[in-house]
User: Fold these one by one.
Assistant:
Number 1:
Amino acid sequence: MKQGKIDKVSICGCGWLGLPLARHLAQRGIETWGSKQSSEQAGKLAEHGIHGVTLSLPDTLAQPETLTVELKQFLDTDLLVINVPPGRYEGAADDLVAKVKLLSATAKQVGCRRIVFISTTAVYGACQGVVDEFTVPRPDTRSAQAHFELERYLLAEWGSEAVILRLSGLIGPNRHPVRFLSGRKGIEHGKDKVNLIHQTDCIAAIEQLIEHWPSQQVLHLAAPDHPSREVYYRQMADIAGLPLPEFVESVERNSKIIDASKTCNWLSLTLRHADLLNNNPE
């Protein structure tokens, strides 16, 4: 990696966000590696120009000295993007911490140069009002606490060679929370503001990180448009032709508003999906 240039990127977790990110980077001519938990799915990554490897944490890395050639090549990279969502089972948050710490230690041992950890704005928890990149997190769920623990661990281990990217609620192809709220009745806190970010803008932000490694290590993303939950989800349901959700009458609270203007400035990033109300939910 000459003068900080990133020529090879490995993405741990080629799911809803990781796969389109890997496809985009491969199409740009960057040597791109991606992991899937099954060998069958890993093999299919080649169809997109991605070097696929089978990686199931923690089993695959239990004995670093016995790593396969493919896994060593995967981890010996200019940039490792850690995009490992927590499971939904009991103890999943603790497992996430153990898995990512093992992955980090093994990657450093093999020769990885930099990492990006995909985290969540849920680490801000009970914070109220406008939240920027310097707001002190207040995680109030076990999952959010696990992410914040990993953020601190990775920054301590990697120093300036680590970037934490906290993402707000994710929207994009085949993923929109309106589908879970459609037709529901008696939904509370309808006047709270939404904090959402589109898949396309997440990929663009990571691309900018690759082009110009930032001096700021903690970044976050959310569209600058923050309509109320009631206004937003009813309009998105209407656009999608779904039954409208019904919210109970509520007072306006000082809800959390994620301000990502600093991150966009640091990355020279212009969000394509900044206006949430005038964008198709998909």
Number 2:
Amino acid sequence: MLEISELRKRFAGGPDAPEGKVALDGISFVVRPGEMFGFVGANGAGKTTTMRIVMGVLQPDAGSVSWQGRPLEYTERRRFGYMPEERGLYQKMRVAEQVEYFGRLHGMDAAAARAAAGDLLERLGLTERRGDAVEALSLGNQQRVQLAVALVHDPEVLVLDEPFSGLDPIAVDALATVLQERCRGGVPVIFSSHQLELVERLCDSVGIVSAGRMVASGTVGDLRAVESRTLRVVVRDPAPGWADGLPGTVTVTGDRHVLLTTDGDGQEILRRAMKAGQVEHFGTDQPTLTEIFKEAVA
């Protein structure tokens, strides 16, 4: 289990802002084995700073990062897979050579690094480009190589900063499949993304960060339950005036009347609807992650 507890970080200011900037103000969350955690927030909210602290690139002013119940140290971090926001590939190196090289840096022998690189390039659709220099690749394919570099040493934890940025739908599916397989093998995965529909589809848990603070966290189902306040009732061909006096608004499409309300006695509304006509739907609308995000950061 990876545990981030009360991280705080302030960056030094300049002449115009001598007090500096608070980047993190008590960020805390936990990622369990086999869990995919989506880290979402606006630009500058603190996602990248948090990931850099997890990987030891930055030091926090306060707070801690623990792995398997112990403080996270350099030795453990070497077994993590990291995809930074600012990509770090050697542009002149060939694709396969580069992935193998990073495998060797993580302590793999030559044969193991070569085999792992070949498997990942095949899984990520890069086999035909294995002999090309990185600089000859599209940005999307460079992104795939960067992911292969993060995965080549079979990491115990994956920390990925905007891994889906710039990818076409086919590449997104290929990357998502690889990450899901790692999760099923027990690897905790953290990734940040502005593609909230993708986070909603892939992630077991989500953390929403704003101005350096975690403003909402939990499973998508839990977050939906908190925000689910709109009752939606669809009645087909109801008697005229059936909703008179009920809270909310009614829209009419053909012979269907749709009542939306956040107030009132649900059982009374259901009785009125059943008496008026055929009830086709009665339930609380499930908000999307985008709607939850907007509500949380408002």
Number 3:
Amino acid sequence: MCAESPGESTTEPGPPLRVLCVDDNSDAADTTVELLCAVGFEARACYSGPAALALAETFHPGVCLLDLNMPGMDGDELALRLRPDPGAGPVVLVALTAMNDDNSRRRIAAAGFDLHLVKPVDPHQLVTVVDKLWHAWEARQKPAADAKAVQ
């Protein structure tokens, strides 16, 4: 798990990006969190959909990495419950799963995921993707925030 004290993001000054990693395989979730914390993100792991929903209420992640096949609540249901409104946070939902067939890709699209990464993901690629997704989302939000400030 990540230390409680937030670090600096690899490219962005100020508070680090918060990442929630949800996987019923605790080793996979914990390893991903350790990697993300090592490069400056603030990351937390959960091992079930209900635990992720509870943590998201207080942690307010900017990116969620979700496994699809989990007992009880699968990743697609979790994605729909984390972001019932496309304009609401968490801002970026990433399916991080070993599944890569046509049916899985349809499930991922229907649940509103922003991206699908297939396990095993190269650690460097994962860090790069999370950072780029976050910056792309921030760039899309800046014009809307600037317009509100003018009003």
Number 4:
Amino acid sequence: MSLEPKPADIPRIPGALRLYKISSVITGVFLLLLCAEMLVKYAFGHELELGGPNGFLAFSPTGTLTGVNLSTGILIVHGWFYVLYLFSDFQLWSMMRWPFTRFLLIALGGIIPTLSFFLEVRVAREVEAFLADREASAATLEARP
């Protein structure tokens, strides 16, 4: 049996959904950047460097970086956006009162490449459908004499 969101939480759901959608896309993009960076680092032995001797932005051999290591920067930024993604996942999950397994599935979106993009579409469609149904039923109740 699925639980319904609490009436007090319903006005806050669109904002939580907006935060989830934004953090989902940003986390997914940085996860893809991180995967590409790891491939370059471990397959080719280079890291992305900003302001080093090889130019403004260049791939330099690992261990020879003298400028800003953007590879580490991508890793750190993805980590912090994943924390925001987990927060938005938890917020939406708790307002919608979904089962815990749903929270875990959505949380995997920030760990498995491209999953956050697919989940973002699916979750947004489901929440928006719930809100539209809720609005339609409220309008039907108001229209009754």
